[in-house]
Amino acid sequence: MRKIDTLIHARWVVPVEGLERLLENHAVAIHHGLIEAVLPADEARSTFEADEVIELGSHVLLPGLINTHTHAAMNLMRGIANDMPLMPWLTEHIWPIEGEFMSPEFVADGTDLAMAEMLRCGTTCFNDMYFFPDVVAERVEAAGMRASVGMIVIDFPTVWAANADEYLEKGLALRDAWRGHERITTVFAPHAPYTVSDEPLAKIRTYADEMDLRVHMHVHETTFEVNDAEQKNGQRPLARLKDMGLLTPNFLAVHMTQLSDEEIETCATHGVHVLHSPESNLKLASGLCPAQKLIDAGINVALGTDGAASNNDLDMIGEMRTAAFIGKVAADDAAAVSADTVLRMATLNGAEALGIAEATGSITPGKAADLCAIDLDAIETQPMFDPVAAVVYNASREQVTDTWVAGQRLLADRRLTTLDEAAIRARASEWQTKLAAKDKDSQ
Ligand SMILES: CSC[C@H]1O[C@@H](n2cnc3c(O)ncnc32)[C@H](O)[C@@H]1O
Ligand SMILES: [Zn+2]
Prior knowledge:
Elements: E1 2-13, E2 23-31, E3 34-40, H1 41-47, E4 48-63, E5 65-70, H2 86-101, H3 104-119, E6 123-128, H4 133-143, E7 146-153, H5 164-178, E8 184-190, H6 198-211, E9 215-219, H7 223-233, H8 237-243, E10 251-255, H9 261-270, E11 273-276, H10 278-283, H11 291-296, E12 300-303, H12 316-331, H13 339-345, H14 348-354, E13 371-375, H15 387-393, E14 400-405, E15 408-412, E16 415-416, H16 421-438
Parallel strand pairs: 1-4, 5-6, 6-7, 7-8, 9-10, 10-11, 11-12
Antiparallel strand pairs: 1-2, 2-3, 4-13, 13-14, 14-15, 15-16
Helix pairs in contact: 3-4, 3-16, 12-13, 13-15
This protein binds ligand LTUXU72L and zinc ion.
Zinc ion is lined by residues 69, 71, 218, 254, 306-307.
Binding site for Zn(2+): 69, 71, 218, 306
Protein name: 5-methylthioadenosine/S-adenosylhomocysteine deaminase
Binding site for substrate: 98, 191, 221, 306
């Protein structure tokens, strides 16, 4: 008998990568945070002696979900400005609030709230773009989650940095501080083509090439963005980014709702990853990202929620369903963006986009034990013919019972083990009072 830390028995296991699409009555063996083996339940019992044995008799075990685009601390602005398009939403509501309230405390409390919500829907890893990324990294470290933290750059001064050089300097210091961390990586995060000028973008390109780092950016989010750029610069934003040499396999383009066939081809040729955020695109009426067309062109498409101020949740299970439904309409084809495709977008494709697929994204021996368990015994998922279809088309995040990151059980039978739910709720309520006094529309 081999001694291991944990043995999880599940009615179904969906590894996402490998030969088997669906395994029934299997177990996942975990030792030192890594997946040691995935094997039939009986064989597992006779092979391993585990310190902890968990029986999930009516659950499906999936790789942890990867939210590839969010602004975690914006959870504190959930619901503050609704029913308006991107630019008025940003310039008349969100940026004024950020201008007044942004602080390390805001980011710490907002990130904790976001991580609590994410763990409760099976998310194990997120790609963040927000102020005080040093605080984000510290909160992630304390909570035990996995994250890719953005070295943000934007042309205007904020409480985080006064100018582009300071944003870059602070970003690079963050990278140095967290380099080699098992769960935390850093990526460049220039906000958008309309807020970052050529000079800092050229520096980012040089650094990203030299250090082989990802570049995470909102691109072609709305028709306004594209038309405005054409009018002001005589060029569409993607063409400018291409000319600047930014379109490489390190480039992560979020939104991408306005794309010509030629632009899709360019992205495919240059190995660009697309981070699809369908619910934010719908709520702000930004447009539809042609997900199936991108996939057919060979582009890696991953999934993200965007921040809770434009979604208004961080529910990756709901996001999968929306991505599947909207993907079918966009392609005018019910077979487009299938349940299996969308689950891959929410797991392995996310890991590939973030450059961490060697460590996570599928239930594969040797990878970290980043997992989530969903109980399919509920009325809402009965009868149950296919666990993958059930998760995508009719399960809800309330059915997520357990979430593990690197073998640590961060959600145990719906109880958060590293985050204090009551304290998080109390802090959110305090911020609500402060923010409501500023934003008249929210009262
Ligand atoms: C520089 S920190 C990130 C910055 O992005 C803003 N933001 C949030 N959601 C969106 C979106 O969908 N498009 C563009 N910008 C967005 C956020 O408020 C921060 O200021
Ligand atoms: Zn965003």
